[in-house]
Hints:
Layout: E1 14-17, E2 22-31, E3 37-44, E4 49-53, E5 57-60, E6 63-66, H1 69-96, H2 102-156, H3 162-197, H4 202-217
Parallel strand pairs: 1-6
Antiparallel strand pairs: 1-2, 2-3, 3-4, 5-6
Helix pairs in contact: 1-2, 1-3, 2-3, 3-4
Amino acid sequence: MQENSNPFFSVGKEIKDEYGRVVGKIASFAVTPSGKIDAAFIEQADGKFSKCHLENLHFNGEEVTFTSWVKSKASVFCDQIPLIWRKDQTLKDLVEKKKISSELYQELHSNFEGALTQLKNDAQALMEQIDKEIVRCNEEVKMLNYALVNLEIEHEIGKIDDESYQKAFNIIQENLRRVNVEKSDLEATKSKLSNILLGDSPKVAEQKAEEIKIEASSVPDLPEPPVVVYVKEIGKSEI
Length: 239
């Protein structure tokens, strides 16, 4: 959450995700007796209500952006795993320099090791979830391309007028853009998390993730309208 904004200004306002899709509207906030805001109550686009942690929301005046829980969790793992690893390494240096006892080292090392193992297991489970999200994006791209082809066919045979065609075409193209950006984000997030687990520093892992996003953005992912050619059968000409 942005510190210099008042979240209550956003009550009743739309929430959009990072890709511009409307998630819902803020109906209220969960506030502690001390006045701290813990979460937001959201009326989703389908009319259902849900509770969203504030860490997944970014406030900029009256504008509210929802950040994917996948990216939020990955960010936590990418911060915590290298930190605990560095602490454990520092602990090892201290015992080698005889600044702490072996007994104290073993106790603290065991705590760090247990926490690190749990974080790595949770991070691995998150990567599997990211894979499922990437599959979902691929399926959505496939469906949108089918929609585009069918739109072209119906337009060519005259069942859809030009104005309606253009509106529908723009909708499909915009959704293709969004899902492709989301997919590249997911792939970059997975790459960063994977490299952190392999021992890369956060900075190096971030650089590799950015390279993946740049590579993905260099490939044209929005298809041009397909050209449907109809061949009219020519009968015998009259003499």
